[in-house]
Batch of 2 targets.
Target 1
Amino acid sequence: MKNSLLLTLVLFLFISCTKDPDNDNDTFLSGNGIFLLNEGNFMGGNGSISFYSYDSLKIFNDLFAGINGRPLGDVPNSLAMTGERIYVVVNNSGKIEVIDKNNLESVATISKLKAPRNIGIISSSKAYVTSLYSDSITVLDLANNSVSGYINIKKTSEAIAVIRNRAYVSNWVGGNKIFVLDTDNNKVIDSVEVAMEPESLVIDKDKNLWVLCNGGWKREYSAELISVNTSTNEIARRLVFPDRNSSPSCLQIDGSGSTLYFLSSGIFKLKTDASAIPLTPFIPQGGRYFYKLGINPVNGDIVTTDAADFQQNGQLLIYKNNGELSVSAKAEIIPGMMIFRLNDDFSK
Amino acid sequence: MSMLGSFTVFFSLFLSAQDAFLDDTVKINEVIITSHKVNRFPSGYKIIRLDTTLLNENSHESLSAVLARNTGISVKSYGLSGLSTPSFRGTGASHTLIQWNNIAINNPMLGQSDISLIPAGLFDEVEILSGGASMITGNGGIGGTINVMNKPSWSEGTFIVLNPVAGSFGRYTGLAKVKTGNSHFQSVTRAYLQYGKNDFTYMNRAISSIPVKERMTNSESLGRGLVQELYFRRNRNSLSARMWYQNSDRNLPASMLTGTASANETQFDESLRTVLNYEGNKGWSEYFLTASYNLANLNYTNKLASIYSDNRSGSLVFKAGFQHRLNNFIIARTILEDENSWVSSVNYSDDRMGRNLASLTIITETRSLGRINGSLILKEMMDQKKLLVPDFSGGLQYRLSGTQNYYIKGSYSRSTKVPTMNDLYWNPGGNPDLKNEISNGAELTLDMVQKISGSFSLKFNTTLFSNAISNLIQWVPGPFTYWTAENAGKVNTMGAESAFSAEYASGRLSAKLDLNYSLTKASRTGSLISDDDMKGKQLIYIPVHSANSSLHVRYSRFYSVLASSYTGRRYTVADNSSYLPDYIINSITVGYEIVKNQNKYNIGFLADNILNAAYESVAWYPQPGRSFSLKINIQLKL
């Protein structure tokens, strides 16, 4: 009897201490998948990172806090990956969390930033960070994970795109300009007047900059999709949205650099040589609330997030490039920006 | 005896019993009015009153702290100098009507009031009404009403009260009161000054896996207040004029999450409130006329975001009431109210937005009908010249025993709350097409008062309640890049409240024990989205369980108060996947009081949160740990 009891106890302890293989962070994080930021509620401190594994077809939530024993912060807004690091911009906590992309362990925290929004990787040792409230772009030293300087653009900033030794930065809230920065000497060298509130930027296969201007919340102006020649910094084409009430966001481009996608109460798709904005969405929103968008650069998957009512857990939705819904996975509160981690073995 | 006569006798008795100037004993704790033959509230409703003694004991505290420690009202607080809002029985802060002497003082923009700015020491009584009782004194309190009141005491002579308090974290308050007059005229002046550095230490759990000890910054506060009351009475008629000026200049503490990126937020609140009231009666009729003019400024600054928000609001209120005793059993009352409010804000599309809300309330009640009495309330509101569907409430009371004060009483109410000015006009996102929020609620109360002996008595009451709020207004993401106000669902609340009180007094020893418990289940039942994970889940920041207790003991000149309050788990996300843990706050006060002639000298020492509980009322906003205060109260008759 005593031995049976002992055996039961040992078995219980063994079972209790056994980890579910799915939760072995090192294993699943090294595979192919999508790192997804969940913004969480404003002032709720429940921002988090999820990982959708293309290998196991499962989503793993609340990874940062589980691994690092502390919250990620308030309203993580964007993220970027370079080398072995992921840089998570935590807007309302005024910081950037530098984490190891293989195990999500915190490497460093760059703090005391003013309302940081997005990060543009300039090189392995330099990055620019835009700001919702500051008139300056923050220059980061990625080797030391510290702030190395500021570039005063005299406006607040939002989106950033980098090509060659140029960084293009948009002045979003109430603005209508794109600032051109020389990344060699960290100076503003030019600006381009586009349309009201340039919200997102991408670079296409021909090295043109595409600017999505949402027209401003007052709806006094129509939204526009504008292409800028990055050699001359002049506007090449303007596509005006036919409906003044359109409020598009989240411009993305596929891996070939020839097809643009954006959100506007649905997912819209158009070729870079299209002559007009499509009148109907490629994928209608239906009863969901499409919040952010990403395009798998290898297989063309259209990945979006459904933020539901912004109070409860949302969803990660993956559509095949023909528009067929293939994955619907429960994420966390206000699932937002994402990046793809695709190894060489990732197949289309 | 006419209603007003009965009324006057009741309040005279009540006030004389609690008059701090004349009484040489320290009255203790909250008074719960469970049933009285004479009451200005009709039969069937539950009314709670916090009396002068309790407010005097806590003169250095805000109304927020007093409610949190002594009632079942759930209070959400952002820390010592931060915003604080009340919630009744699972409803929202904007569903709570805050009144000063029966005049609404909710900010018309948000529809709520920051009760951390209301110093307990400036008032004589707090009246707490829930359910249909809220319909009697004002409009829109579909959760409940908190009415802070100044009341006359018709004692002869001049009295001065000085009440300085010094405490931990650089907190100082001073209250001075001068009362003079005779049986026909009274003047009461109260001045209040409060300063707090509020630099307590706390454990920051946001920046490291092991909490780090930090000191609170950007939490300094400075408040000043002045209340002037003038009362005249002749025969059975009375005239009163009251004025309350207050300002508060404070830094808003940052959350643990944003500490290093603090926006250095500050807020300046300033208000001037006036109310003129005349009460008269003739035969079996009585009436009142009230006029009130109020101004409020709220300046919010966020240096990081370059926000300098200047908001001004005001209201002009007229109220008239007429009551007539139709016969020995039935009383009819009519109350007409017209509230004109306006807001001037950079956040509205027009420089100045106004609104008019008028109401007609008819109350019929029976009195002295043996063991059963009842009441019926009908209310018609007119919002911006548009008549609303009438509200109503019915109450019944049954005396269980012919000889004992055992009562069972219940009520059913349908009441309306119109949207706030922000809900309608905020730019962007305000929605002028919003429907009114509608509450359908019922409550059933058992009241028992038992006198065991000449020196020992017991009181007990328990209430079951249920409330369904439809057309709930919430700000939800819209098709553009901003949120909009929508009627976004339904909320059901239900629960129970129990209170037990035991009082003993014999010779030089007196003691009183109070126990309160609240059970609140509040969940959303309707939604704008499909697959709503929130349906049926407890609303965030509404604890299912909360309780408080206090034991007052006095022997000769020595007194002590042991108080505890328990706040249960509060969910912080809508699907209930994370929560703030429950906590208990214990405090002890010991003091010594000398009464000489009509002068009193009282010194007390308070140790609050004696077990140094680390807790948060709002996630990531730490509350202070153990603290100490030295309180002096000198009352002199000149």
Target 2
Amino acid sequence: MTDLVMEAKHVYKKFGKESTKTKKIGTQTCLATEQVVEAVKDVSMQIRKGDIKLIFGPSGSGKSTFLRCMAMLEIPDKGEIYLRDECLTRPGVDLNKARARIGFVFQHIYLFRHLTALGNVELALRQVLKLPKEEAYKRALAALADVKVTDCVNKYPSQMSGGQAQRVGIARAIARDPDIILLDEPTSALDPELTGEVIDTLRDLAKQGTTMLIVSHEMPFAREVAEEMIFYDEGTVVETGPPPLFFNAPNTDRAKKFMTRIINRTTRE
Amino acid sequence: MDVWQQLIFLLGGVPVTLSISIISFILGVAVGLPLAFIRTYEKEIGFVVDAYEKILRGIPEIVLLLLFYFGLGAYFPIPFNSAFFVAAFVLGLRSGANQSQIYRGAIHGVGDEQIIAATSIGLSKWRAIWHIMVPQVMNFSTAGLGSEYALLIKDSAYVYVIGLAELMTKAIQIKSIPPGDVVTPFVLSAAIYIALTFPLASWLDRWGNKRKKKLGL
């Protein structure tokens, strides 16, 4: 199958080390076990060209960690990540080259603070793709125009609103024309009135057929653009299916409970 | 010598004082920046940096100067027989140890997220450090660097022990001219040191604060 863009096979990632130590507290000796968090437990996933998949689930369940594993920003303890035909988890792979083909959008944006919007987008084009100055400039401007922040071209991140900054973050991810874009809760750190403009940008990207894996709780948006929703809890994929499945009658109790909570919250707002 | 003659004589030492301080400051940047990043991002060899900092910060300036000039100078006349070279070299190495600590604080202030974001666009760790961290760290460190520069101007006074004709050496020369004015040359040189340190250090501080505000650092 040639249209497979990314694949995760049995990915596993934990934080903290399993160790039991004896600790002396006052006169008493007790066993202290360090907490191990299994953020990703045997998760597999396939993403084809043009797919838009949306991961959702309770906070702290490991969604972000899984997404970071996909971009190899966290190195999985077990399992394999494929980008096209290349296995990224094999030792000796040039991860920098691979990451250049994966766009990543962060929850807390993380724009480069000493660079303007243009500088933020240009950097990868100049330093990673090694494009000539003129071409990098043109492509960066085009990317900024795509996300409709042409008024911010020469502004520093601290001079932008959260919504503008996140759209620049998206421009930074799409400018080098990556195979896939991974978005980690792109709207959850924004004020409610600013999420709309970011969602509009994502909707545009969806229309252009961009391959995306999104962690998000924007349910109306999910219903509109996602081909598949993935309910993720306690480090595993609990249930997958098209949006109507989740909005009407999820199969698992956990998904049902979570959907009710989220839909109630949305309607209250 | 009257006051004006003394002043003109002392000002003759200012170019040497300034060039020692500026060269050692630049050497300090070249030594301190890599050390700070190695200490932060290459934990396995961080102890080497620690040892370097402890040793250079733990030995008095004057001992280092004498050790390099007379000690190393006896075995390696080139380049250690040059008082100017030894002065800039010793002050630079010591400043590297100080600056390493300034930059380390700044690296923590800038935060790891910037590196994560830079690697996510396909930059390697060390290129991310160069393109993303170094410019921000320099902005972050302006206040510390201002006082480090002032320290270098002041510490260059120790150089009189190896006989380089900088400001302090000139003041001592005036003192030794009979009948031996012990007040005026030192009052004048104190004023010159203040004129050399204060304006630049405070300008750097103000400029840095403005930059930090603009970049939201």
